[in-house]
Amino acid sequence: MTLTQFNNETFRSINDLAGSFSAANPVMVFLAEYMLYALGILVIACCFTRSNRNRLMIVFAIVSCGIAEILGKLAGLLYSHHQPFAELPNVHQLVEHGIDNSFPSDHAIIFFSICTTIWLFRRKEGFICLLLAFCVAFSRVWVGVHYPIDVATGTLLGIVSSMVVYKTMFASRLVKRYAESGVKERVENF
């Protein structure tokens, strides 16, 4: 079995659930389309907390997300394919989506880079965020806009970029100085 066959068959097994378990479709559509807004609200809320650690976490998350997106665009130049609904017959397409290169999934990149960073800083909340990221990635296949390889690659890029950014930025003297300095008090009093 080739990778393309495996990818297509795995896609079919997940996407066909939309026909078999149609009661779950509204939840999957919500996860696939609107959970990104909830993640954005979470990021903004963390920026306005009085915790210097939360602010630092968001800086790390934004940097890792940016790096993962750049890597995703480069990966998309090396390998590309259109969305499953544009290439395969009888796809349960539950959301509107333009036809372009679907490799890798931007949603998976964004969710996993941000949620992995949250997990690195705050284990309990981060674990919940990672579960949510997995649900979003799965929902993107369920609703017919991504192949499993798209979300798997986006997941990998998001996780790896977060780990690398976390390790390298914490090693940075600038970050250490910021975390240990009186900047926290100056920012909170601003």
SSE layout and pairings?
Layout: H1 3-15, H2 17-20, H3 25-33, H4 35-47, H5 52-78, H6 84-87, H7 106-121, H8 123-142, H9 148-171, H10 173-180, H11 183-189
Helix pairs in contact: 3-8, 5-7, 5-9, 7-8, 7-9, 8-9
Low-confidence stretches: 182-190
Strand content is under 5%
Q: Distance N terminus to C terminus?
A: 61 Å
> How many structural domains does the protein architecture include?
1
SSE series: HHHHHHHHHHH
In this structure, how is the largest beta sheet organized? none
Number of strands: 0
Principal-axes shape call: globular
Spatial extent as radius of gyration: 18 Å
Helix content bin: over 70%
Q: Which structural class matches the secondary elements?
A: mainly alpha
Number of helices: 11
Mean pLDDT: 89
Protein name: Undecaprenyl-diphosphatase
InterPro entries: PAP2/HPO, PAP2/HPO_sf, UPP_Pase
Organism: Fictibacillus marinisediminis
Keywords: Membrane, Transmembrane, Transmembrane helix
